[in-house]
Write a structure and sequence with these properties.
Its EC number is 1.3.1.48, 1.3.1.74. The protein is built from nine helices and 18 strands. By secondary structure, it is of the alpha/beta class. It has two domains: 154 residues, Medium-chain alcohol dehydrogenases, catalytic domain (Quinone Oxidoreductase, Chain A, domain 1); 149 residues, NAD(P)-binding Rossmann-like Domain (Rossmann fold), CATH 3.40.50.720. The longest helix is centred in the middle third of the chain and has 14 residues.
Length: 335
């Protein structure tokens, strides 16, 4: 028998998640059934979307997880196979290789680690994982960029935004990124962004007009809020907007959200196309994105930066750090 540890959310989040909202529980895993595998976790993901889901009922903290099979009753998953799942914050878990989870926060099938071609396994919860797919399909299929167009990305120094900006450069676009510190601004410009702006210190409207005097054609929105309203009012006719997140409001009281400038006039008079994208929309196409992103990383066209925290006991701190914007690139936890 294996004794496993897992994080359980025991309180509904009110504002910032608090340490007392989580408990680390120990439990004994049962013997394997046919089709099941016992997996030892190696890399765990922390992501802003974890804050969106909150419930008065206890639940295991979900999230992407890279692990190695240490015991198996599934012929296609021998011992030593590395797998990716959405099982979450646990050090050991049993996975049913035939199961597709139906709940919104568990959608997806277990899959074998992509062929990483010498890249770190940790990228399978980042650039070669859910965030990479979000950047790839969300940007290319919703913004439909054309060479020479101007692209704006918010949350630009995060796991998704930093990839979007680099993909936009590959496609021949001018790229402007908004981030929350001078350190992030400097890093974004070092990886090819034409301009990066610290939204916490700049006059964002004036700074964007100076950086994009001909207007904005595509906007990849990770944050929502007043900053997004400002950007929409500087978009060109028939501009394209994809909304992927709203991190500016994740820690706010959902019954009394902060106010932002009305968007309808900008959408109407500029004939904007605004669409929402959730990565599950592309659940059957993950390998397509993985293959191309791996090629871009190998060729040096994409830098896949990681913000690594070590230790199972530090997962809570890593999550709060992401929500506060402490990370540059993808936040991962090594256990």
């Amino acid at each position: 028998m294996v004794r496993a540890r897992k994080y359980v959310v025991v309180n509904e989040f009110k504002g910032w998640p608090k340490r007392e909202d989580f408990q680390i529980e120990e439990h004994e895993l049962p013997p394997l059934k046919d089709g099941e595998i016992l997996v030892k976790s190696q890399w765990l993901s922390v992501d802003p979307y974890m804050r969106v889901y909150s419930s008065k009922q206890k639940y295991d903290q979900f999230g992407y997880n890279v692990g190695v099979v240490v015991e198996t009753k599934a012929a296609d998953y021998p011992v030593g196979t590395k797998v990716v799942s959405h099982k979450g914050w646990c050090d050991y878990c049993i996975l049913d290789t035939n199961k597709v989870y139906a709940e919104p926060h568990r959608t997806g099938k277990i899959y074998k680690l992509p062929v990483m071609k010498g890249l770190p396994d940790s990228l399978a919860v980042g650039a070669v994982g859910m965030p990479g797919v979000t950047a790839y399909f969300g940007f290319l299929e919703h913004c439909k960029p054309k060479p020479g167009e101007t692209v704006v990305v918010t949350g630009a120094a995060g796991a998704v935004g930093s990839l979007v900006g680099q993909i936009a450069k590959i496609k021949g676009c001018k790229v402007i990124g908004f981030a929350g510190s001078d350190e992030k601004v400097k890093w974004l410009e070092s990886i090819g962004f034409d301009k990066a702006i610290n939204y916490k210190t700049a006059d964002t409207a004036a700074a964007l007009r100076a950086a994009a005097p001909q207007g904005v054609d595509c906007y990849y929105d990770n944050v929502g809020g007043e900053l997004s309203s400002t950007i929409l009012y500087q978009m060109n006719q028939h501009g394209r907007v994809v909304v992927v997140g709203s991190i500016s409001s994740y820690n706010e009281d959902q019954t009394n959200l902060p106010k932002a400038a009305i968007l309808q006039p900008a959408i109407l008079y500029r004939r904007l196309t605004v669409s929402g994208y959730i990565v599950w929309d592309s659940r059957d196409r993950f390998p397509e994105a993985f293959d191309q992103i791996i090629k871009w990383i190998q060729s040096g066209k994409i830098v896949a930066k990681e913000h690594v925290t070590e230790g199972f006991d530090n997962l809570y701190d890593a999550l709060v750090g992401v929500l506060k914007g402490d990370n540059i690139g993808k936040a991962v936890v090594k256990i």
